[in-house]
């Protein structure tokens, strides 16, 4: 692979911003069809935005977390579903970078490879000659119908009574698709369920999860010296996921301000909503909450980038703080969207008004098991109180 210059953060975020109009154009279609539009996927491919967390030796950029968050947030201004898929696929590239190099050669030969992933161990891997036999069913398999590979979590049988969590890379074509993604929001992600039935997986594509999650250990020799793979899994996943929430709040802001000059407040004397003091208070409140969401996303990204660069070990409190930042960003973003939605009046319920879709999308995102604010706050509080965390995903 010939050497090339990695695009700057400003250039990559600018490429994402240039896609917003295209994404917004297809957002209603994506919601109706429960999958991303081919033109949108191709636009993101052409912009090189699936290479953010791919190894340089495959043509990837190995961008820092702040850059990834900036790109994801911009894509979410167009459609939260696009941002969530992009976040999933860029995390998938990072996860594949943890596997042995021969596995990466198999999966990442396409520098724009789309690799889905799940972190809930809903499958069972039984050892056999040369590998494992995998069976299981995984809901929320984001983007699988437009992915080449999927990294699924499972448990591997050690003996009759002992199981250990593992990460298993499989071709997406080997999974059975269950078309059950009928939801109130984030419909364009195509997060259907997938099933593995007596699927043989070579041992090289089975990666122990606990050393990966807790210690940041991996099996790649070529990526061993890269800053990108220095951090443990959970903090590495947290900030980019929360950037989806931030981008949705900015999308709501855009939608509200676009409609504001032509709106009145029905059944009042305000012929222009923009002149009402209530509107000023609502706009200010939303702006502050968006700023607070951005603070938590930025802090999470800067902490990860800083510790990856320095090589300093992660304390348990810092790991819990990464989860807290993710939950706090999501909470503040949702609050901002709620304020703007409540200020938008009855006319905003029509399907052609983006704000109603954004409101449903942020609701779905805030209920995600990893981003759920209360779950993350409880975890952070436990650690601050000197108790052991109630999860391995930290």
Q: Can you put this structure into words, describing what you see?
A:
The structure is a single chain. By secondary structure, the chain is of the alpha+beta class. It has three domains: 99 residues, Butyryl-Coa Dehydrogenase, subunit A, domain 1 (Orthogonal Bundle), CATH 1.10.540.10; 94 residues, Butyryl-CoA Dehydrogenase, subunit A, domain 2, CATH 2.40.110; 155 residues, Butyryl-CoA Dehydrogenase, subunit A, domain 3 (Up-down Bundle), CATH 1.20.140.10. 48% of the residues lie in helices and 15% in strands. Strands 1, 2, 3, 4, 5, 6, 7 and 8 form an eight-stranded mixed β-sheet that branches. The longest helix is centred in the last third of the chain and has 34 residues.
Key phrases:
12 helices, 394 residues, alpha+beta, Butyryl-CoA Dehydrogenase, subunit A, domain 2, single chain, 8 strands, Butyryl-Coa Dehydrogenase, subunit A, domain 1, Butyryl-CoA Dehydrogenase, subunit A, domain 3
Question: Outline of this structure?
Answer:
By secondary structure, the protein is α+β, with helices and mostly antiparallel strands. The chain folds into three domains: 99 residues, Butyryl-Coa Dehydrogenase, subunit A, domain 1 (Orthogonal Bundle); 94 residues, Beta Barrel (Butyryl-CoA Dehydrogenase, subunit A, domain 2); 155 residues, Butyryl-CoA Dehydrogenase, subunit A, domain 3, CATH 1.20.140. Helix content is 48%, strand content 15%.
Per the CATH scheme, the topology name of the largest domain is Butyryl-CoA Dehydrogenase, subunit A, domain 3
Q: Round the mean pLDDT to the nearest integer and report it.
A: 94
Assigned CATH class of the largest domain: Mainly Alpha
Rg from Cα: 21 Å
Task: Note the beta-strand portion.
Answer: 5-15%
Overall form: globular
